[in-house]
Amino acid sequence: MARSRQTKAERREARASGPTKAERRQARSDHKQAAADAESPPPAPTPEEVVEDGSSEDGLEGRLARLEQAVAGQSERSEQLLSGLTAAREAIRAAERASTTDAADALDAATAKGVRLAMRWRRANVLPVDRPLALICQAQRSGGTLLARLFDGHPQCHAHPHELHIGDKRPHVWPELALDEKPDRWFAKLQEEKLVDLFSKGKRRIPLKGQDVPGGESLYPFQLPPVLQRQIFLDEIERRGPITSERQILDSYMTSLFNGWLDNQHLRGREKRWVVAFSPRRAWEERLDKLFELYPDGRLISILRDPLSWYSSAQGRDPGADPEKLVEHWKHSVGEMLEADRRFGDSFCVVRFDELLLDTDATMRRLTDFLEIDFDPLVTVPTFNGYPVGANSSYEVRSTGVVTDPVERHKKLLSKEQRELLGRECDELYAEALGLVEGETAPAAPAETISLATATIAQLSTIEGVGQMTARQIVEFRDRRGGIGSIDELGQVSGVGPGTMKVLRARIEP
Amino acid sequence: MTEAEEATEGAEESSATAGDDAAGGVALPRDWERSLRPVRENVESIDQPLALICQAQRSGGTLLARLFDGHPQCHAHPHELLIGYPKSHTWPELPMDEKPDVWFAKLKEGYLSTLFKKGRRRVPLKAPGEKSKRSYPFLLPPDFQRQLFMDEVERRRPITSERQILDCYMTSLFYAWLDNHNVHGPEKRWVVAFSPRRAWADGLDRMFELYPDGRLISILRDPLGWFSSAQGRDPDADPEGLLELWKRSAGEMLEAGRRFGDRLCVIRFDELVLDTAGTMRRLSDFLEIDFDPKLTAPTFNGFPVGANSSYGMSDTGVVRDPVKRHEKVLSDEQSELVSRECDELYQEALGLTERDAAPEAVVTVEGS
Question: Residue A467: which of B17, B135, B291 has the nearest Cβ?
């Protein structure tokens, strides 16, 4: 009100003698920052300091892995070990929370401000994610990572960037989310430590390799600031309130994950139908009921790998593993598939590992039909956020794309005794489980092949994933050269990427 | 930027921070800088030619640029292309004996730095002083862009052409734009950007000297519709000056048609607005890229966008009102003046659009 008593001239004079607009803005900003600094906890130790303390991130991660392994194998000590595991996770969470509160000093002030503001605008423009989950679930070493990466980039799917690790005690167990808990507590139970770790390392390492195979990885960017994800989660809970179901909490989490992931290439565009994620063992036993309790509109996908090839892969990953336990694990996985089919057959689809590798196109067509989404050539090439990806193999793999070696590798690796053991233990169950695959609609018969030597633009345009323009460029390319000796040469045609090449190989002959 | 716009932006910033938590909102992660390293390590050189959208302002250039956003075969510039020295709409001279820092200083788009400092790109753009409805995040740290530019220059050494320098700049732009949603995916064919007047007079030769493999796209807006839009944006503008600008733009299209006809495509503004799918099909044929339904819905980095209109707009997507708005806005005298001055030239320029194939029938587009 005092201002209203000033004349315009007085106000002009006051402005002229006082700080400029920019100075006032800076002062406000400084004041805000000072207030924030005063409320912030002390700076967290740097990663280097943590290492000196003997509790590096790798150390904690290793400790987690060891504890988890021990929990799985030694039930009598499980309570004690679970307690240790929880403590270790809390330690990581505390370090992460502290490390995200006062790091503006790592950047110059202008950049820090720009990044902060961009994150705020990100928060202001969140795309709610409430699509049901299409969960890929079976024993490890069955191709789950590959299948998850094949869904990366499908325009109707939000594809999880890693394995789904939500869970407050073990990463593959559904968390209990009591509705009377506080949102921060929900987030603590859901937050995926692996994603925090990937961001803190600044990268997603792909293709994943056998533990004893050095080098050869591709390191790709992964920009999911945990503090932004948490903030979006809390915003979303607030927006959706009152929260009356666990599903709403999970939807808020998925919203925070896919929107907080800054360089996510597939957040927007076509309307999404599914959140697709891989999580081994998450839908086993009582967790199967929990899946469809949380997601009555969800889908379950399992990959059935033949016992010989699965065993050789599992043994390759862990040469010291007890053979009998490995066989039991495979049998458990297959038994769970049979159970899921009995109880939730309409929402369940089993695909064969060998078919996924040897006929990726047809298998993915079956899965896109199952999920009621369009087939897109992108689903035949594994990627991470658009980057090329190789196999998560127990053996050395040099190429990217779908590699077919694992299907036959067991023939070289397994002894006669091992084969006999597996045949005796697994053949009957395997034959029964194959019925789950055969019960599905058989993949469509391969379409008629087209001769590249005589193909017209109209003929090539009938191939799904090949537009008229690409078809024209292929024909022009062929005619310019006076013919084409190998289909591989089409890789030189502008606009023909790996996905299109795969489709072309399936449909045309030289 | 006008004072009114600055005031609006200040208010927007305040509202963006209003919901922050007690710790001061979203703090920066300590690991931020570390997370940038893999971005540097995974840069793939951008050396695609430029498809430049160029004509007078108020002709739909912003809309057309935003229609290309998200096309899997295009890198779409996030704003107007403002590389240039000494003016932001003129091609810079980039002598080979200059230092990379000088090249970058000449190319760097100050407006993008301004957007980054505010952390957002405001769309749809409105008339001066009118508050915008939507602001979207924009994360392109200028220092990081400079770093990527230097990396790319180093990687490509020896630099022997200005085109290489421009390619280094485009590489740095699209990769340093950290939340760019369309940097990966199927092979890109074009960098698409809108820059009014850049390919006029000497700029036309310069365009095809730098990008002999480039393409020029111009939008021809009927003079009545254009005049009412231009006057709506600047009510005090001299009518004769405005008409001269329209005539200049149409004249430049005719000149480009005469000299670079095989690399020029002229489309009509009214057809772009009324038959977006048909017009975009023609443009995708011209650019030899696949038609994608995304081409029919304007977006900024995947976010829905409205019209860059001189009049209040509440819709997103392609709005059709501008085509007939002049009938309500212009007086009889104004309409007569515009017709007298421009009709003949307009008819001649329309010939540029008719020589291309007619747009195909409108098709229904799903889920764009």
Answer: B291
Residue B368, chain A, CB below 8 Å: the answer is yes
- As given in the structure block, the two tokens for residue A500 are 């299109």
User: How many whole angstroms separate alpha carbon B72 and alpha carbon A378?
Assistant: 12
Distance in angstroms (rounded) separating the CA atoms of residues A267 and A259: 7
What pLDDT digit, counting tens, does each position of A283-295 carry? 999 999 999 999 9
Contacts of B114 (CB under 8 A, 6+ apart): B1
Helix (H) or strand (E) holding A49: helix A47-52
Cα B6 to Cα B1: distance, rounded to the nearest angstrom: 7
Check if A22 contacts B (Cβ < 8 Å). Answer: no
Residue A108 CA from chain centroid, whole number: 32
Are residues A270 and A224 part of one domain? Answer: yes
Q: Which residues of chain A have pLDDT under 70?
A: 1-107, 168-169, 202-218, 390-405, 407-408, 439-447, 465, 468, 495, 498-499
CA A394 to each of CA A314, A315, A361, A397, B250: distance values in angstroms, whole numbers, following the listed order: 8, 9, 24, 9, 65
Separation in Å, CA A198 to CA A190, A195, A202, A209, A322: 16, 5, 6, 16, 31
Q: Tokens 């929880």 belong to which residue?
A: A86
Residue B359 pLDDT exceeds 50 = no
CATH number of the structural domain spanning residue A473: 1.10.150.320
The complex scores an ipTM of 0.80
Same domain for A266 and A397? yes
Q: How far apart are CA B141 and CA B147, in angstroms?
A: 10
By CB atoms closer than 10 A (0-12, 13-18, 19+), residue B33 is middle
Q: Does one domain contain both A397 and A457?
A: no
pLDDT tens-place string over residues B299-341: 999 988 865 555 544 455 666 667 677 777 788 899 999 999 9
Do residues A487 and A376 both lie within one domain?
Answer: no
The total number of structural domains in chain A stands at 3
Domain that includes residue B274, residue range:
60-98+123-130+183-354
**Which domain covers residue A82, as residue numbers?**
58-99
The beta-carbon neighbor of A269 closest among B26, B116, B302 is B302
Tell me whether residue A129 is in a domain. yes
* Residue position matching structure tokens 């807006």: B221
Distance CA B50, CA B191 (A): 5
Would an 8 Å CB–CB cutoff place A101 in contact with chain B? yes
User: Which residues touch A158 (CB under 8 Å, ≥6 apart)?
Assistant: A129, A131, A254, A258, A266, A267, A272, A274, A275, A276
pLDDT digits (tens, 9 = 90+) for B251-297: 999 999 999 999 999 999 999 999 999 999 999 999 999 998 889 98
On chain B, the residues whose CB falls within 8 A of the CB of A263 are 39, 178-180
Asked if residues A380 and A402 have their Cβ atoms less than 8 Å apart, the reply is: yes
